[in-house]
Structure formats: structure tokens, C-alpha cells
């Protein structure tokens, strides 16, 4: 969700932000759920957070054959705030109407995340899953570019393939922040459709979508300089949190 007031922070980014926060204002359609325990916005030594490393995840799967896993894109795989900053400052100055404008999403689709920055932390995760022979899916709340049909390998998919050194890539699933009938959260349908065992994401809706369909969620830290503010409370639903995943 992209809210109007960006929080300016001073001091170290390792300051612990712990709260039983009320639900955040969001453009996503899923119902907001209060956190069940304290969470953090940046990595800390808080004992109540279930931190996991890439090696921990790998070890938890050592007795399993190849599985299906899914990833959110924005702030999970890629730092892509520049596109949303452009929408907020150029397309609809001071407003967030651009998020509902197909022209904005067509612009993003044509750019294909050519100027986005892949996160090093998720590079390691994807490498581990590829070495295991796992099947990887990308599920995003973005709206599909009008020049592409469902199931087509668009420019963003091909750039993700290159960024993460993947031999093959599946077409991206676009939800347009809209849950399918029978589901509360926009990504739930696709997580279930692909028989996913682990879903990675930075947002509350990523965690709640996975939980809705009985899938293991792993939270990825959102970068503290993301335009997507406020930062969610990682671990706030008792989910596992990937260590060192803000960048």
C-alpha cells in the first residue's frame, strides 16, 4: 500500500519498532487483521521473532522432494519504488489515483522492471530453491499490462529470469489487488492453484493469503527506504521472518 505521508526516520535504521499495531490503511482488498503479537520493522534481536536463514529453510526441506514456492515481487524480490514514486509525483501529483490507472500499469509493463534493483537476500533464496529443483511462481498485486495476455511471458518475467539466473520462468500471476471469488486475499487463489508449499512476501496480505489456504508464509523485510509506508510489523502474525532480507 502506498500512503500519503512518508515517515522520516532519524538515527540508526536498526532501531527496533515494536507494536501491536492496528491494521494499516491499504489499497489491497483483503480484510485487515490485527497483529497477534509484537512485530518488528527492521531486524533486531527480539526473542519473540521466529527468524530463519536460507540454510534453516533448506534444512527444513531436507526430507522433501521438489516443491512449489511462490514470491511476491515489489519489496520482496525487487526494490521498485522508483516506479511508484514516478506515479505519485508525475502522473497524479500528490494523489494515488495512478494505482487504479491502466496507463500507469502499461508503463510499468513496458519498462519491465528494467530499472528495478533485485534484492540480494532473495537471490540467495531463489538459488537455494533452484538447486533443490523446486518450481517457482511469481504472484503480484500489480495489474497486468494491457498489451499482454494471461499466461504470456512478459518483459518483467524475462527480466526476473535474468536477475535471478533462472533457467526457466513461469508466467507472472497478476491479481490487480482483487481477490477471486471465495477468497479473502488477492494472492490466495494463485497460491492454492499452484499447490504452493511456501509463500514469500513483505506485506501483511502476503502472510494472511498464505495462512488463508494453509500454506507456510515466510516474511521478507521491506527496505526501510521503500515508498510503501508504513513498514509492516514482520513477525506480527507469528510467521517466520527471513534474516537480513531488507536488501
From TrEMBL:
InterPro entries linked: Acid_phosphat_B-like, HAD-like_sf, HAD-SF_ppase_IIIB_AphA, HAD_sf
Keywords for this entry?
A: Hydrolase, Magnesium, Metal-binding, Periplasm, Signal
The source's superkingdom equals: Bacteria
Q: Which GO cellular component terms are attached?
A: outer membrane-bounded periplasmic space
Q: How is the cofactor bound?
A: Binds 1 Mg(2+) ion per subunit.
Q: Where does this protein hold Mg(2+)? A: 72, 74, 202
Which catalysed reactions does the entry list for this protein?
Answer: a phosphate monoester + H2O = an alcohol + phosphate
Q: Which NCBIfam families match?
A: AphA
What protein family is recorded? Belongs to the class B bacterial acid phosphatase family.
The name this protein goes by in its record = Class B acid phosphatase
Organism in which the protein naturally occurs: Peptoniphilus indolicus ATCC 29427
Q: What is the lineage of its organism?
A: Bacteria, Bacillati, Bacillota, Tissierellia, Tissierellales
Amino acid at each position: 500500500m502506498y500512503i500519503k505521508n512518508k515517515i522520516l526516520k532519524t538515527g540508526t535504521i536498526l532501531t527496533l519498532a515494536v507494536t501491536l499495531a492496528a491494521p494499516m490503511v491499504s489499497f489491497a482488498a483483503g480484510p485487515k487483521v490485527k497483529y497477534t503479537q509484537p512485530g518488528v520493522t527492521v531486524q533486531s534481536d527480539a526473542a519473540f521473532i521466529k527468524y530463519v536463514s536460507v540454510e534453516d529453510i533448506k534444512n527444513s526441506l531436507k526430507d522433501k522432494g521438489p516443491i512449489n514456492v511462490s514470491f511476491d515481487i515489489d519489496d520482496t524480490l525487487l526494490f521498485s519504488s522508483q516506479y511508484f514514486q514516478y506515479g505519485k509525483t508525475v502522473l497524479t501529483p500528490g494523489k494515488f489515483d495512478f494505482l487504479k490507472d491502466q496507463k500507469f500499469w502499461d508503463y510499468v509493463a513496458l519498462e519491465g522492471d528494467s530499472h528495478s534493483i533485485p534484492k540480494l537476500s532473495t537471490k540467495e533464496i531463489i538459488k537455494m530453491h533452484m538447486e533443490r529443483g523446486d518450481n517457482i511462481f511469481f504472484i503480484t498485486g500489480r495489474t497486468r499490462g494491457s498489451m499482454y495476455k494471461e499466461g504470456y511471458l512478459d518483459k518483467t518475467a524475462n527480466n526476473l529470469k535474468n536477475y535471478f539466473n533462472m533457467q526457466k520462468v513461469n508466467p507472472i500471476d497478476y491479481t490487480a489487488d482483487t481477490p477471486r471469488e471465495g477468497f479473502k486475499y488477492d494472492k490466495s487463489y494463485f497460491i492454492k492453484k499452484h499447490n504452493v508449499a511456501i509463500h514469500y512476501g513483505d506485506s501483511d496480505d502476503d502472510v494472511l493469503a498464505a495462512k488463508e489456504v494453509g500454506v507456510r508464509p515466510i516474511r521478507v523485510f521491506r527496505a526501510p527506504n521503500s515508498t510503501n509506508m508504513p513498514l509492516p510489523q514482520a513477525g506480527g502474525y507469528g510467521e517466520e521472518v527471513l534474516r537480513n532480507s531488507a536488501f
